[in-house]
Amino acid sequence: MQTIKASVFKATCLALLDQINQTGEEIIITKNGKPVSRLVPFRTPPKSLFGLHRGVVSSTSEIVSPLDVVWDADK
Question: Domains in the chain, ordered, with CATH?
């Protein structure tokens, strides 16, 4: 995360916008050494949560077949 002074942000605003668009890294803008704002890249929210983690989450075992364990509810 990059931190810059407000005066530097004012002078290089357009270049910084291009930078966060490419890198995805947010920038903290300070005034008198104190954080006053955070510049983050815009991300379009997904239209549906269904399939949001497709390709990210995976299972290494069979999750459908029954376990060979007797539960108290089965007695």
Answer: 1-42 (3.40.1620.10)
